[in-house]
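Q: What does the assembled structure look like for these inputs?
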Amino acid sequence: MLEIRGLSAAIEDKPILQGIDLTVPQGEVHAIMGPNGSGKSTLAYVLSGREDYVVTGGSVMFDGRDLLAMAPEERAAAGVFLAFQYPVELPGVGNANFLRTALNALRRSRGEGELDAVQFLKMARAETRRLAMPDDMLRRNVNVGFSGGEKKRNEVLQMAILRPRLAILDETDSGLDIDALKIVADGVNALRGPEFSALIITHYQRLLDHIVPDRVHVLSDGRIIRSGGPELAHELEAKGYADMVAEAV
Amino acid sequence: MPVVTETLDALKSVTQSGYKWGWETDIEMDLAPKGLNEGTIRLISARKEEPEWLLAWRLKAYAAWQQMQEPHWARVEHAPIDYQDLHYYAAPKKKSGPKSLDEVDPELLRTYEKLGIPLKERAILAGVDPASIEGGSQVAVDAVFDSVSVATTFRETLQKAGVIFCPISEAVRDYPELVQQYLGSVVPVSDNFFAALNSAVFTDGSFVYVPKGVRCPMELSTYFRINARSTGQFERTLIIADAGSYVSYLEGCTAPMRDENQLHAAVVELIAHDDAQIKYSTVQNWYPGDAEGRGGIYNFVTKRGACRGARSKISWTQVETGSAITWKYPSCVLLGDDSVGEFYSVAVTNNCQQADTGTKMIHIGRNTKSTIVSKGISAGRSNNTYRGLVRVLPKATGARNYTQCDSLLIGDQCGAHTVPYIESRNPTAKVEHEATTSKIADDQLFYCRQRGLSEEDAVNLIVNGFCKEVLKELPIEFAVEAQKLLAVSLEGSVG
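A:
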């Protein structure tokens, strides 16, 4: 369902991605691992349509559509969700209001009816409970005054409510303690099924103990240097990036 | 800088898409000839069958006005106004009172419908006997159509509570001693150029009197609408809250779309006696002109409240999205000890709009308190200025003021300016001023769009969040309206 072919991208004329080939079939969870500066976050932003990044080559097809030609909100409507590495604060905007506006925008674009405040809150409360999050998460302003862990959990809550077809998690595990890590993992695992795919971007293997990926890819200098099964993550953990990069050269 | 470039692109492509109140109603009008002289004033006074004292008052104002210069200290620019090229009186021609909705001029009814006034109230406004209409409502409405107050709904219900809510022209006739006592007592005839002009030629407006100890049982609401071509609208509002009373008042304003500029110079006077409280909310949506700055209302308004009594309180809440030029400083004169003045404002400017707005808080009594929260949003090529004065006089021991001025910029061709004046002549006074200026950040927009919101919806959401502290001060049914208005006003401000 996601087909990346020869994708190259730059920011301010500096090339970051240098020919990525990657296919994520429907229903599969793939992990992208790599050292800092390898282009992991750039890949996440390019796939979700952030404008500061310039695509210099290649193509991305999503469900047979040219993803790169779509506006960020069109990609969201098609089912692409990005869990941000640094979630953004929206002062004065209530989390519930934000999520309902987003969900209804998605539903409208899919030709589904909108949810009213009561229907939405019922659904949103069920999700917060399932993810063991406090109720006031919905009442607070979007990410304002949230701790790092709360921000990440809020991303997972949003994902649970918006139900994407492809979730991209950009280092969602960074800065999380083990309990928060489990909550994030449970959130992703609960969505797993034939209609859901995910691209999990992470520096460390530990998240992959809780979300076991179908495939693992190692990114270095904007290229995928190795791909394999879940065991590749363990090999990487044992060897370290430097050795693996050296082997690949 | 994607936001900026997109804003520029959007501005190039966008025409005035937003103003849905821009219809014109074709109703037979009784129109005074253009021009302003003593004869015009005598004609207005005669048409309204006014007592001699009021004519004398008007003429005094006119004499003062002739000695005054149009003020130019505000950060706004406009072509010279030809005060002789305006009609100073325009009224829908009167027919005898209709028995039912079927007999009402359908054009007038359609106007009320477009204003969003509920059907029952439309009927009452049009002069149908309220007894023949079933059901009740929470809001009493007075509609001022060009110069004349067309009707006031629910006057009888209010009268049972002892509240007087009627067109000021009727108050002059029915409650002359109240009007004579208070009219011009807060804004004297020679207060400023536009107030003097208004005093000379005002044609209608609303009058409210809430007697001692009465809590007004419903929101009072006035709709102002400028319809006729080349008319100035000079309404005059006078609200008196007697000791221990409470009243909440809302005005809404719209006007047709026109190429020419129309002048609106209103005066609002509020008087709060001991322990009384007045909450005055405005949702101002006069036609702002098109994207190139053609047409639109010049809104030059003097609004002032006097907290005369101890522990009295006056709150101004305004959402200003319209007008080509806004020149407006709703103020509080805090005379009574422990009296409280509040000013909550959202001013939005887009395209070529100019707003110079703020407040004056004059602390005279002891332990007087004032709060100012101003949220300015500038988009397009507009200019938005907060101008505020906090003055503490020598006897105002223990006076306190807190001022917060936040500006939000959309794009890089607009301007936000903050001009606070602080004068304290009492060493015990505490005056705090906080100001921020921010831009809608690219990462905020991207975050919203990644969740599926269009760029425009994202801007609305962020803007509404920015204004929340002010919007929550509005009566709930109007807060919803105001939010929609913000969205319409900023349409096309990002692409």
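Strands of chain A lie at 2-11, 14-24, 29-33, 53-62, 65-66, 80-83, 166-170, 197-202, 215-220, 223-228.
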